[in-house]
Amino acid sequence: MQIKSSTVLRNDYNAVSTLAHQTQEPIYITKNGEGDVVVMSIAAFEERELQLKHRADILEAEFSRLNGEPTCSVAQVRERLREKYRHA
């Protein structure tokens, strides 16, 4: 975890930007010694968003399974995929 003051962001944006791209992690920016905002590269942000979407999709599928929705075995999925690619 990287923590930088708002002064560093204001006075040396390029260094903060470079750090964000190199570490691919959020950089916490403080103002008057307190947490204020988080800065991260677009690539890191998009990856984070994708991970959150995948987690939400998995959670939704698990809730459906727990609520009695029909499921497929691994063997059934494999057979469906084989069938799909036979006709592709």
Describe the strand arrangement of the main beta sheet, using strand numbers: 1-2-3
Number of helices: 4
Q: Could you give a short account of the major beta sheet?
A: 3 strands, mixed
- Uncertain segments of ≥5 residues (pLDDT<50)? none
Keywords:
88 residues, 4 helices, alpha+beta, 62% helix, single chain, 3 strands, three-stranded mixed beta sheet
Question: Would you kindly provide a written description of the structure presented here, covering whatever features stand out?
Answer:
The structure is a single chain. This protein is an alpha+beta fold and 88 residues long. 62% of the residues lie in helices and 17% in strands. The protein is built from four helices and three strands. The chain has helices at 6-11, 13-23, 42-66, 74-86; strands at 2-5, 27-31, 34-39. A three-stranded mixed sheet has the order 1-2-3. It is elongated, with a radius of gyration of 22 Å. The mean pLDDT is 95.
Give the secondary structure arrangement, pairings included.
Elements lengths: L1 E4 H6 L1 H11 L3 E5 L2 E6 L2 H25 L7 H13 L2
Parallel strand pairs: 1-2
Antiparallel strand pairs: 2-3
Task: Give a brief rundown of this model.
This protein is α+β, with helices and mostly antiparallel strands.
